[in-house]
Design brief:
The chain is an alpha+beta fold and about 450 residues long. This is N5-carboxyaminoimidazole ribonucleotide synthase.
Amino acid sequence: MTTANAYPINQTIRTIGILGGGQLGMMLAEAAMPLGYHCVFLEDNASCPASLYGRVFSSAQLEDFIAAADVFTLEFENTPTATVEQLAALSANGSKQGMFPPPIALEIAQDRLKEKQMFNDLDIATVPFMAVSSQAELQQACDKLGLPIVLKTSRGGYDGKGQFVIKQDSDIKAAWQELKDAVSGKGSLTATPAPLIAEGFIHFSREVSIIAARAQDGQVRCYDLVENHHHHGILAKTQAPAVGTSHLFQQATNAITTVMNRLNYVGVMALELFVTKDERGQDYVLANEIAPRVHNSGHWSIEGAITSQFENHIRAVVGLPLGDTDNIHPSIMINVLGQYPDISAVLAIDGMHYHSYHKEERDDRKIAHITLMTNDVADLEPALAKLVAVLPNKVGLDKTNSVITENSAELNSTNAAEIQESVLDDNLDTKTDSTKQNTIELNDTKTSNDQKAKK
């Protein structure tokens, strides 16, 4: 029975409306509940994971969804911008408490060209790139950037779809034929006409990401850099913190803080980065893409950080102070793809935390994640080996030594080049989380010498 004093008298936000009802929405709702907030969802799948935690409204019930919530956020960056703009307008006129993140964040994240141009405008380094709207322009891009290059749709595309690796001149015509419809908006990957983007090839040693939360008053708190590995173009494993990245942390935090401030962002954002070397042989990071939402590479934070990315997003959206983002223990997050493991076998291993998304099994579908935590980074590898042994889909982790420790041998530039060339020969295993992707996946024999110093 709901009573009149169910909420503090000064609490003007009681219900959070979330655009999308997948596992990210589910975990946002889980984080909202202890803080005293309910969630409702705009999602056409009535049995979506988030349905366990609140009412689900279909897109045809948009007005009812709006009426049911006080403030709005999203869990999916391909949400139609028109909907987000409508909710932002309601907030601007005072009838609702806010739409976070703002529409500009989606506009940028949904267009790879705008995204790369924003990075460059902010003096944030990226791979070299060019817009391509014709086969002649594609030839010019290949000549200027040099081969190999990756040709992508600037909008749409997911799990490696919507891109073509051009390794030699004879690939140019085939690449154009495969992706040209996206320029006119006739392709299956996007209905919005937009140029393609050609990205130059850069040798890099590993992929990392940084997640940050920005409050309504502009305060920014960053999580440790993490290292990501992919299987068939889907995030398979995240190690937190990324070993040997203390010298890169400030570059990464400066970059994501600059982006968030430019967009007047509120909530959690992820910035995906490649680690490469400059002409002096010094490590630096290249920005790949932003995700204007909570992110798969931050799932470890539920158990592994003092305040999870999900709780910090909720705090930002409702106007509460942000929480401490420090790590509690070294962690590895593994995505469960396609087939559920025996949960008893998983939880029989010390340090395991299991999160089911309540989805039906389907090939390469993210249906759960597992976070393993140890007191020492040296204990991660044996724990991971035990976990991989009981996973039906081992997401490639049975093929390599995939835990980075302080004793790992450093990957030299020659080996990096050999690895990347091998990946190119395998048609470029691409990286994505939900709708995003980029270039080359290295194998897991990568490295470092020291753990990141605490902030």
